[in-house]
Fold Interferon-related developmental regulator 1.
Amino acid sequence: MGKRNSRSKAAAMFDSDDDSSVTSSSTARSDLMSVSGTEDVQFDQDSVLDQALDALDEKRGSTRENAFSTIIDAFKSNMQHQFVEKKFATLLHQCLASIKKGSKKASAKEITLASHAIGCLALTVGCSDNAREILEDSVGPLDESLARSTDVMKAPSLLDCLAIITFVGGNAQEETERSMDIMWRVIHPKLGSNVVAVKPSAQLITAVVSAWSFLLSTVGNLKLNSKNWQSSISYLSSLLDKEDRSVRIAAGEALALIFEIGAIDKFNANDATQEESKPQESYIFLQGLKGKVINQCKNLSVEAGGKGSAKKDLNNQRNLFKDILDFFEDGYAPEISMKIGGDSLQTSSWSQMIQLNFIKHFLGGGFIKHMQDNEFLHDVFGFTPKKKHLNNGEHRMSGGEKRMFKSPNSVLNKARTQLLNKQRVLSEGRNFGHYSVSMVDDET
């Protein structure tokens, strides 16, 4: 009886007519956002989250959408360790239920919100067994959903979710490569006799390239198979000629990262695989591709504004490709410095910049809060913020935080080596191992 009353209360809180859903959702979120700082407040937050979680069982789609919005806002505004400790599995499987095909007919908006909630959950639990569970349970449904539809509304969120959960929960390089391959199949599907190729939209291409680059920035050991790199670089080079500026910028960042890794300059005839019968020709072709990319970057760095071209977007493009040209000339990536509260966060490589921009894009307004309080991100970026002091000058941690982060046997400590390896700055002279992701299918 108590559970039924709880669900009824949740439904009343998040249910609304379609034309007033924004107002009702905003009211629920404002109730949540208005509380912060005390143990009583934490209880209030958990109570609102519990009601939102209950509302995910409701039949009305707008009710579930409002509940997801409240959950996402809660995870962005505070580190919800206590709630996760109690309701992790329930929340994950409710999110997956909205993504999977089934009796619950989810709208594109609901699938988008559910995907984003899973990514927020992964960033909250950090490098842990829970992150492994998120990846293992979610990669299949995400792959299936992406294969079923390339809806420009939900596909980017599905891709972002796949990128984040792989970034946090992936232990083996094969897992990262699997996710990268799933991403490429969105714009390079395997075509059967009854499959018709659909030209991907600019927004979809941008989302795929950005998510793929984000994961490529974490891959440490690469097999320099020139056939794979020829197809990869050729495709990205072709995107530099597209009309859409966001496509060109995403492709430019991906190419800069590939060159930082050393996919071309480190390759020579002696590094060739046995499958390649003419390694010297492949190397020459790759060098020619690099020359073509350099010329394209020169043109884009001085491009005049076209009709309807936003000045800010044009300047962003020019500055990016100037940075890429500088990188080709002196080998130094652009340095970024941003203020997080009173602290300075700095990056000095393309891989770090791509990771920072991607996570900032994903968290949106919650980025600063997470950079201040999320220990997983502290490890990722080597960032140590000044501790916040509450009331008596001491930092108070919740019971969940203490168990997750302070125990000698904490999952964070156990995973520290993995994180450091994943986020190690790529440097010249690194020995390369295996890499098998190809931009196109190698069917013969």
